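Final report, closing paragraph on structural work. Over the funding period we assembled a curated collection of sequence-structure pairs, and we close with a single example.
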Amino acid sequence: MSFRSGLRVRCEKGVNTTVREACLDFAVWLRLNMEFPIRVIVYLKKSYQIKTIDRKEWVSATFFAPYDKRVEPYIRVAAGDYEELVEERGTDNAIYAILNSMAHELVHYRQWIEDRELDEGEAEIEGSKLVDNYYEGSVFYEEIVQQKKVWTIVKDERVSIANNNAGETLMPFWSNKERAEQIIKLVPSYHKFRVEEITLDDFLNIWISGLKKDHYLVGINWCGKSLIGHELHPNEVFEHIQKQMKSVNEMG
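Its predicted structure, as stored:
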């Protein structure tokens, strides 16, 4: 029997636009970093809490895990308290809390796929790791050190550059070809760009120096139409890569 696969996000009318966009961007990143062999839909609800189907408890998010895997699972995430969370914690922490609820339930989805018990402790730890990885970009360093390659996008032999809200200039790089290709597909202004591969040695010994000389920041693993990702000084990127390389050498 064949199953529909993938991750989908459905947003109820009335959910804050910022929450909707943040969850959609997170979903783009998740599709590149997690497998979804059986389709799961995340429903963003405008309610403050959601009642669980089995225990009738009120929670911030819930995962429906059918006994029969011919039935597709789904996740519901309450987003109605976003404005209150912003007042209490600030915008960034409010978004983090909602993404963390979504990630928590996606760990349950993974447990369900693997026919394991739905472990709350594991979901709490691994869900937080997913969101932290999304924000901090640790996958970037792990993948480029493993593959010894970095990717950027170019047009007419010129690498893409962009400016952030502070007016600083950035040059974007990705840790695998597929991530860069996804951006070209998603962002209209990049449709005419192509992916270019760079060896890790060249990135460390040539590109990083050039970026420092030009006073450019490094954008890593941007994803989604909103180009969600990280902006770092070239020295920071260099240090992270060196640290990852040292860690790999010590393990090997």
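Residues 91-113 form the longest helix (23 residues). The two ends are 41 Å apart (CA to CA). We thank the funder for supporting this effort.
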